Amino acid sequence: MKGGIQNIEIRGDRMVLNNTLQLPKADPKLACQLLDQAISKHQVLMLILGEEHKQIVEWADQLCNKTQTGDTNMRRVVWVLDPDATQLEEKITSILGGASPAVAVLNLYGNFACQLPEDGETVADIDPIQLETAFLKGHG
Amino acid sequence: MRNLLLILLSAVVLIGATRANAEVLNHINFLPSSAPPVFGNDQRLAELEIDSSLAIQWDHPAFLADLARRLGYSSKEESLVPRIEELKKQISQVVELQRLLIMTKKTSLELNHARALGKTDLKALNGQFLAANKALSDAGVPLLTGLRQKYKVSDPALYQKLSMAILANDYQPIGNVLEEEAVRLGALLADRITVQGKVEILITATLISSDGSSRPVHLDGYDSYDVGGPVPFNRFQVTTDERTAKEVAAAESMADLVKKAQSGALREEAEKALKELNSTVKDLRQTLETDVLSANIDQLVASLTTAGESNLSPLITGALEVRQLLRRVADSPALPETTDANRLLALADNIQEIVNHLDALASVAPSQIEKLLADVDNELKKRPGLVREDLMLALKHSLEKLKKSTPAVEAIRADAKSVLASLGILNGVEAAIDQSLQKPRTLLTNSNLDTRLDLQTIPGERHSGDRLNIQVTVSRNQTVIDSGRKSFRLEAYGPFVETRGALLFVNSRDNLPGGQDFEPAPGLSFNLHYGWENSPFWNHIIRPGVGISLAMLDFDDQKSLEIGIGGNITLINDIFWLGYGYNLQAKVDYFYVGINPLVVGRLFSQSTGIGKGWQ
Fold this sequence. Notes:
heterodimer; A: 140 residues; alpha/beta; two-stranded antiparallel ribbon; 9 strands; B: 615 residues; alpha+beta; 7-stranded mixed sheet; 6-stranded antiparallel beta barrel; 52% helix; 20% strand; flat
């Protein structure tokens, strides 16, 4: 199950994601379990909240390749397709302290590191440089 | 002693001048093929493996930025300078970030490997892993934030490129984008700099041998010196090479020369050579009829000035320029005809000055006179009678003479070199006389100033301890605006055998008829040395050697041929020898001390101005 979820290929959009955990929409309980598992693995996690952020997910997935070493990776993307699902929303709120950004980064200890978009900017302003900066904040 | 002090003082002044003006070297990377240059205890002198090649690569954008700032260009150029400098700073930060990324991945691998092996005490590895992550974050966040703030709005096209580059598997593409931008701005700056005056860059390389001689070394694109086939350093040289032959010859003639110097005969020979050179220079002046030409030019200037028309002033200026060339030749210093030590020290400068002036007369004056005559001809069509016809004919005659003067000037060059060689002093002058083979590069948009040299293709011998000097000169409109010199010492690492010649002072252990105490004799030795990396004190100060020597002896008046064979140690760069041997014909033991005649001779000639045949 884990492998099938990690390696996502959306053929219609030609989207191949090797470093992304896509949380299932249909099963919020399972989604919560998978998120807990991801947080416990001491990786820098980038949570992307919302099905509409495909481009951001694709960029973030590519940025994870920088820290690939053998079979392991220091970074991972978690794509929350339905962040408003009741159980997931509670979970995310507890992690992010009430904020509901498009992107949030958790550091190696699972603690909140930063979020995007930054103050005064919109989701449309998010770009690969900013995403890499966010990942790097998670390493610190 | 006074002369020695003068030499030392001059050296201090020269070194000081070189250091003060060597900023150009900050923009050049010297990259040997084998390993990075090793800096010994003397930080100014880098070691260079004797078989390696050396790439000389310019940091072009930084050099241009520095050049523009120092030349005091206008605000247009000044706005490019900080941009280029900022890009260079960002590039170096990206390089550091790339290094930190690799370190982070390395610590991650080590941690995972330890976990896979079931190790339980991972505290140290985990600490290293976290520290590496923090260092990566600390370096990357400000850099990327800065790039976004700087370029997202001000240069969207560049920012778009950076955004695509960051998606790669490491940070190198980001550095490449910044480098491309620095090169683009550098080209723009080069365009603007060269509009205001031709900037030329000359790099020359000279190999200074341990026997004091120097040779120019070919640098691709900067000169037309010959190169040889690649010849690796001969680690076990048991045949005599040129240096050894020189040393043996010097040892043979040293005793005679000392006697000559004591009797005054050497002084007479030196003075005769100087008189001959003076006479040759005088003959050339007469052949070129510089006095006649000078008088004709004066008449031309007088005719043009008398006409009093403003449109003739360029013609007058042109004529005066030719007059100036002639005057320089006429005013060249007379060479001293005595071997007074102080005058001999200035001899090289004087000869170089004369050769330079003659050279300018032969190469520049014909085209200037040709142009002058064509211009005067044009004016004559408008104003017949402006200049007398016989004057024009005389000038044309002189022009033809000058056009044919190149071989005569070449002959003077050869004579000058030969006189200097016969006096045995001042090797650097040869290089100055040969400078016409050097080709400065003009700074152009995107011009590549990089070059390289391969030590194995330098024609002739090279030895451990030889010095390679790289001289960089930047000039604008033929005025030097910066120069600097980088020196390398050639090093042979590991064991190697050299043949060396020496003047041995041999003392027989038995009293033979006609034998003398410490009799001078030429000797030849095969010395084993060992070179260590980064050990200049060992390699070039102590430089111990162990060897087998052969000596031509004369212990016994009854024997016509006496050959000695012995063992010796050498110290202080093979200057001092100490050994013990056996005379094969006289059948007696001997011990000896020895000196390197070239080094001792050079020291003597520098302090006295006399040294014929010793170098």
